Amino acid sequence: MERRGAAGGDVCMCQTVFPAHANQRGELSAGQLLKWMDASACLAAEKHAGVSCVTASMDDIQFKEAARIGQILTIKAKVNRAFKTSMEVGIKVTVQDVLNNVEKTVSAAYATYIAKPAGDGQVFFLFASEWTLCNKLSRSKVQVNQMHPHIYVIIKSVTYGKRSKYNSDIFEEEDAVSTDVTHVQSIELVQPPHANHHGNTFGGQIMAWMETVASISASRLCCSYPVLKSVNMFKFWGPSVVGDRLVFNAIVNNTFQKSVEVGVRVEAYNCEEWIKDQARHINSAFLIFNTVNDRGELLTFPRIKPTTKDAMRRYHGAIARRRIRLARKSILSAKEDKPSDLWERSNQAYVSYSNIAALAHLAAKPGWEITTTLDDIKIWTHEEGDVLSLKVEMRVKIPSHLAFSLLSDFTFCQQWDKHFLTHEVLQTVNEDEKIYYVTSPPVTGNKPRDFVILVSQRQPCKPSEPYIVAVKSVTLTSMPPSPEYCRSEILCAGFHIYSESNSSCMVCYFNQVTSGVTAYLAANLTGSSESIEDTALECIKFLELKGSKC
User: Fold this and answer.
1) Where are the beta strands (DSSP E) in 20-101?
2) Which element (helix H / strand E) includes 146?
3) Would you kindly state where each structural domain of the chain is located, as residue ranges?
4) pTM of the model
5) What are the residue boundaries of the HotDog ACOT-type domain, all occurrences included (predicted)?
6) 134-160+176-333 CATH fold
7) Where are the beta strands (DSSP E) in 385-514?
8) pLDDT for 29
9) Do the strands 304-305 and 280-290 form a parallel or antiparallel pair, or are they unpaired?
10) Residue scoring higher pLDDT (94 or 367)
């Protein structure tokens, strides 16, 4: 037993994108990029460990920008944290255009490596003495990953449950495509250029092959060239060596309007296993693709139709994994809240206008994807970079003006929303603006949170326009943070209320997720809680009960 890793490891690799590295669009192929990322991360891990290392998993790979022929890539890899027998390596890829000197982020990922000592012994790592933000984030990712099996089981049961409409009735759509047509199988022979100095196949090479078959599978559904956006749950279950035959099977698991999930399974055979048809399962991953038109606009994928029991399992599994990805994103991308706008006489008009305008901008964004459908409730999510937003649609059987009157008075909120304890009016600016002090209960042993929010309301100028109730945090010098509470921020939230008839309306709630609300939403996104659905049902009951008395 050895203890290694007293010093951290970081490396930097630079590559020029040549035509041999590009795909049919003249952009750097995702497979080639994955090979370079794996190589640089492995070198960083070996620098930290002092011995040869192998890839155990690579997760949370995000592709943000495309690199083109002639541009220069810089791949930086650094050991974020060493655990007992493994290391997490953070990878960031940037591209520089040599003509205009503009630099953009291409990709970011986190990989886990284990040491491969010369003998049969096991290597244990020393923790880095410097406790950085990366260390803290690494520990958070480990905790989230450890929840996956438990959360996955919960979500699968909820997805199959009676409250969800992800059931067989949706497969009766006329344009639904059978998953069978997306199945792709390919075989590769591992040769010396594909392996490292130990004779083991490069993890990056396997990733590149997997990306190829997954892209072909997705293209059969969209009849276009798919663009890889992320890779999740990339696991190495065992090694493969020079001379092995690798069989790749890829198939579309599910589609989510603007994205599609493709599952890939890799099996290895040596000569004897090949004859006996005895496969070794060595890798699996789930790849997320988009597709765009000539103008760069995202296209919608057709619905898919599972035709077998196994296809149904993969279909519901994709829903579960998407909810996990959303929860991971809300937890791991959460940053410290920025101070809100100072509420003072000189900028009151601007802050009020920006409150209404920000909500209108959020509501008008394209690319909202549905995650849950109940009888009178739909829950949508929107991802844009590191920003996650939520939309809840509620059909209510009262006139729109009554719903507007009730929802714009936040002193009623605690009657239907258990996420808030108190609402106190601090200042009535005018008939359309009020400032509230709001408190929320503690979550998982943390201090309770408090908010100072501006609530702006507007009535429609035209029948087709919605009633608006916009919410954002502001800073009041008369209400400084208290040591008893964790002062939190709401960046953009509120309601749009659309009239459907004289006796019914559609209420749409929006929230741009910040660290202040992540703790209340994460469990719901993973499926281990239905607090959003329950709160929406309580809101409908409250509105209809109050509306019947008016």
Assistant:
1) 53-63, 72-82, 87-96
2) helix 133-160
3) 8-130, 134-160+176-333, 337-548
4) 0.72
5) 7-119, 180-295
6) Thiol Ester Dehydrase; Chain A (3.10.129)
7) 387-396, 422-430, 433-440, 449-458, 467-475, 486-487, 493-501, 504-512
8) 92
9) unpaired
10) 94
